[in-house]
Amino acid sequence: MKSEKGYTLILVMIIIAVTMVLAMALSAAAITTTKQFNKTDNRNKATDLAEMGVTHYVTLGKSLIEPAKANAIKYKTNFCTEFTNELKKNNGEKKVEDKNKYVLNLDTSSGKTTTCVDDSKLSSIKIVFSSKGITGINEEVELEGSFNINKNGGSVVFPDLPNRIPPQVPNGYITGVENKPYSSSDKVFFQDYQANKDKINEVNIGGGVKKVTIKNIAWFDSIKDNGNRYIYIQNWAIFSSINAIAINGAKSEIVVDGNAIFFGPKPTKPSSSARKDVCVTGTAYYKANKDAPLEVFTNFTDYFNEKATCVKSPTTTGNNNWLFDDKEDVKVIYK
């Protein structure tokens, strides 16, 4: 009888011990789960804060376009510089609630945000920035965002550049002849254009200078200004070779009131006194050869001289046609 009671007591004690161990294990598991949940919850909150920062920066970028345009005109600078300067003013910490916040920073390191030069040499400005979300307990998540500001909203339409073997006429172009009028829809190819021979659109503009106007998209294998001629092209101009542009005379000048494409290769850079007067009011593009990509001619003024009278047109490349690129989604990289 006593033996049975002893066994019963031992069994009860074992059950109590096992129950206590299980309770402690479950309690520890619950605490661990709570900690993991809290950690995940805080990381999610930090991510939400960083995403709020991205939205803030994109909205800010859209709102700063018009002020940057106005400042570029007011201070005689350029849109890119004014726009990025305004963004930099908004770098730093933005509090949300309690101790939660996000920190914004324009990323100007190499290969990130576009390096600003003369607006005429840019067709798009890429903005790269970071947004770091920080919770009240210092959980951090950093995102990288980017968007583009494009000239003409990225809607520049380039003329066809069919492959050809010089001196054959490019497909879609008609052969240009001096003293011949063309319809507005014609794309004209000149194998050897000489301004002093073209009388059809020639007018005296004073000082012994005659102005010759070409209203069509014009492709020149070679072009010569043999003295006192102001060649005025009111459309796209395409030059088969930088080396085949000859300008003679102190009063001679080629003006492209629009965009232009120059094929290479580039010659040895001339001295400043030897550079010919060529003005492109829009954007000058460069193509090293027929198979090379088209790129902005960033060092155009190393080869040609732009007179003080060379005014960049606001309808083609000036400060008034920069737009947020709504066609390209805002890109976000989760780190």
Overall, the morphology is elongated
The largest sheet has its strands arranged as 5-6-10-13-16-18-19
The stretches of 5 or more residues where confidence is low (pLDDT under 50) are 314-318
Kindly give the count of domains: 2
- End-to-end span in angstroms? 72 Å
So how many helices?
3
Counted beta strands: 22
In round numbers, the mean pLDDT is: 84
Order of helices and strands: HHHEEEEEEEEEEEEEEEEEEEEEE
- β-strand percent reads 25-35%
Protein name: Type 4 fimbrial biogenesis protein PilX N-terminal domain-containing protein
Keywords: Membrane, Transmembrane, Transmembrane helix
Transmembrane segments: 7-31
Explain what you see.
This protein has 335 residues and is an alpha/beta fold. It is 25% helix and 30% strand. The protein contains three helices and 22 strands. Helix 2 packs across helix 3. About 1% of the residues have low confidence. It comes from Neobacillus bataviensis LMG 21833. This is Type 4 fimbrial biogenesis protein PilX N-terminal domain-containing protein. Keywords: Membrane, Transmembrane, Transmembrane helix.
